[in-house]
Design brief:
- The complex is a heterodimer.
- By secondary structure, chain A is mostly beta strands.
- Chain A is built from no helices and nine strands.
- In chain A, the strands form two sheets. In chain A, strands 1, 3, 4, 7, 8 and 9 form a six-stranded mixed sheet that branches.
- Chain A is globular and about 40 Å long.
- The model of chain A has no long low-confidence stretch (mean pLDDT 96).
- Chain B is mainly beta.
- Helix content of chain B is 0%, strand content 48%.
- Chain B contains no helices and eleven strands.
- In chain B, strand 7 and strand 8 form a beta hairpin.
- The mean pLDDT of chain B is 95.
- The chains are: A mainly beta, B mainly beta.
- At the A-B interface, strand 3, strand 4, strand 7 and strand 8 of A face strand 5 of B.
Chain lengths: 110, 122
């Protein structure tokens, strides 16, 4: 199971929208609608932001949205706020009760 | 409210073993699917595997077989990660994480422990 591919960094200005990609294969991202996204602030545990490609857990702002096309999933953050600055990780179910994470994207709010 | 509380930081010498605990509360222990995730300093998240709290059956990711063992003590609602023959490269924060109670494993990890730092150094 190889790690999913994410851009190492991304940035945007307050109020803007930014999209982070997550590329896998037909054995993970492309094969299942079970992509999750996690936000991690320095020194904190990750927080689930999106599950099953586009669903938001209770309490996650609707500024966060997810989508998928083929072997690539995307997380879009709209109306950027300072507190959105964090590391973001995608994760995909890879069959037979296995999961795989992406390498992570360091997101900066300019 | 589901809570996962992990044991504290550990400093170990190369070749030693360590056992990290993750105590769950807020729901029946067997309703959780307990996963383990590693994060080396300055690095990303790595899924290590999971243990079925109903059957005790563990599943290990590639790269986490042999020296890594998941176990349970259902009497105290606690999952354990034991690492043997520690190496410097095992230095990391280890998290336990689970989907919501009784949810499918595919729903992602909604609840996380606070992390346990293991430092391996002579």
């Amino acid at each position: 199971q190889s790690a999913l591919t994410q851009p190492p960094s991304a940035s945007g200005s307050p109020g803007q929208s930014v999209t982070i990609s997550c590329t896998g294969t037909s054995s993970d991202v492309g094969g299942y609608n079970y992509v999750s996204w996690y936000q991690q602030h320095p020194g904190k545990a990750p927080k689930l932001m999106i599950y099953e490609v586009s669903k938001r857990p209770s309490g996650v702002p609707d500024r966060f949205s997810g989508s998928k096309s083929g072997n690539t999933a995307s997380l879009t953050v709209s109306g950027l706020q300072a507190e959105d600055e964090a590391d973001y990780y995608c994760s995909s179910y890879a069959g037979r009760n296995y999961w795989v994470f992406g390498g992570g994207t360091k997101f900066t709010v300019l | 409210q589901v809570q996962l509380v992990q044991s504290g930081s550990e400093l170990k010498k190369p070749g030693a073993s360590v056992k990290i605990s993750c105590k769950a509360s807020g729901n029946t222990f067997t309703s959780y699917a307990m996963n383990w995730v590693r994060q080396a300093p300055g690095q990303g998240l790595e899924w290590m595997g999971w243990i079925n709290t109903n059957t005790g059956n563990p599943t290990y990711a590639q790269g986490f077989t042999g020296r890594f063992v998941f176990s349970l003590d259902t009497s105290v609602s606690t999952a354990y990660l034991q690492i043997s023959s520690l190496k410097a490269e095992d230095t990391a924060v280890y998290y336990c994480a689970t989907p919501p109670p009784d949810a499918s494993l595919v729903q992602g990890f909604d609840y996380w422990g606070q992390g346990a730092l293991v430092t391996v150094s002579s």
